[in-house]
Amino acid sequence: MINSVGVVRKEAENCNCLQVFFVSGSFKVDSVEAKKKEENFRETLRDMANSKYEYVKSFELEDEVMLPNLMVVRIDGRDFSRFSQVHEFEKPNDETALNLMNSCSAAVLEEFPDIIFAYGYSDEYSFVFKKTSRFYQRRASKILSLVASFFAAVYVTKWKEFFPQRKLLYAPSFSSKVVSCASAEVLQAYLAWRQQDCHANNQYDTCFWMLVKSGKSVSETQEILKDTQKQQKNELLFQKFGINYKTLPELFRQGSCLFKKKVEETVKHDENGNPVKRLRRKAVFVHSENIAGRSFWNEQPSLYNDLGHFTKDIGKIEPDFIRSFQFENKLLPLTWVVVRIDGCHFHSGCSRGV
Ligand code: GTP
Ligand code: MG
Asked: Which co-factor is required (predicted)?
C-alpha cells in the first residue's frame, strides 16, 4: 500500500502537453500490473525529486513570444457596461472616465520602459513593446498579468483625483491578452483594426443614445440602426439631431495614442534664476485620424526606430489577420486550474512603508 501526497505527471490525451497536479491517495499492490504501476509511480516521484521544479519551469517558458514577433498587450474592462452604469458615466462617452483611462495608461508607459506606444478608447487599451524587448523573457502570461494588474491598481488609486465627488463602489478588473505581430505590417493591421472598431462603436453608440434620449425605446432604436452603413448613421445624426459627426471630440471618435517623445523640460533653476533645461523622453498624448497610416507613423522616430516602418498604407484589413488577433488561448478541458498571484517588486513597496 502506498500513501502519498506527491506530484504526478499526467499526459493529456492526444496532446504533448504536460499537466502537473498534486494527488493524495493510495492504491493496493496485489498483481503484476499493479506492481508495474507502483514502480512507475516511484520512478515519477524520483524524477520529480531529482529535477526539482523542472516541470514548473518548463511551463513558464512555454508561452514565450518568440523574436522577431512584436508583443502587444491589450487590456479590456471586464463587464464595463455594468461598471459605467453603477458609476453613472455619461452616455455614450464620459470624458472624465476616458481621461482617467488615459492617465492610467501614461502610468503604464512610465512603469514599463519597454512599452513604446499605446492606443485606447472606451474601456480598452493596447500597449506595444519595442521589438527587441526581453521583458520577463517575453513570457506572455507574466507580461499580461503585470500590465493588467498595474493598470487596475492605478485606476483605483487615481479615481479620487478624477471623480472627487463620486465614490468608487467596487474595483474594476481588466482582462488582458498578448497579441503577437509577426512584422510591422501586422502591427499596422492590428492598430487599424482597433481604430476602426473605435470609430464604428462610437458612431453606433452616438446614434443609439441620441435616439434613446429623444424618446425611442431600446428595441425601436436597435431596429432603426440594424444594418445601417456608416454614411447612413452620419446622415441620421445630422438630419435628426443637427450633429456633424466629424465635429465631435477627437477623443471620442479617434481614441487616444500615447508614446514617448523627446521634450525639453526645466529641471531646475541656476543661481541667477535662469531655467536649466534637459531633453527628456516623456509620454505625450496625440490624436490622429489614422494611427496606422504611414504619414502618422513614419513621422515619429521613436515609433519607427523601435517598432519598424510602415511601408505602405493599408485599405481593407486581412480577415486572417483579424482572426489571429482574436485568438483566445484556452486551458485544456478537465484539468485543474490554479491561479497564483505574486507581488511584483513588493520589497521596494514595503520598505517605503506603502
Ligand atoms: P466584456 O469586455 O466582454 O467583459 O464586456 P463589457 O461590458 O466591458 O463590453 P465591451 O468591452 O464590449 O464594451 C465596453 C462597454 O463599456 C461599452 O459598451 C459601454 O457600455 C461601457 N463604457 C465604456 N466607456 C464608457 C463611457 O465613457 N460611458 C459609458 N456610459 N459607458 C462606457
Ligand atoms: Mg470590456
From this structure: Mg(2+)
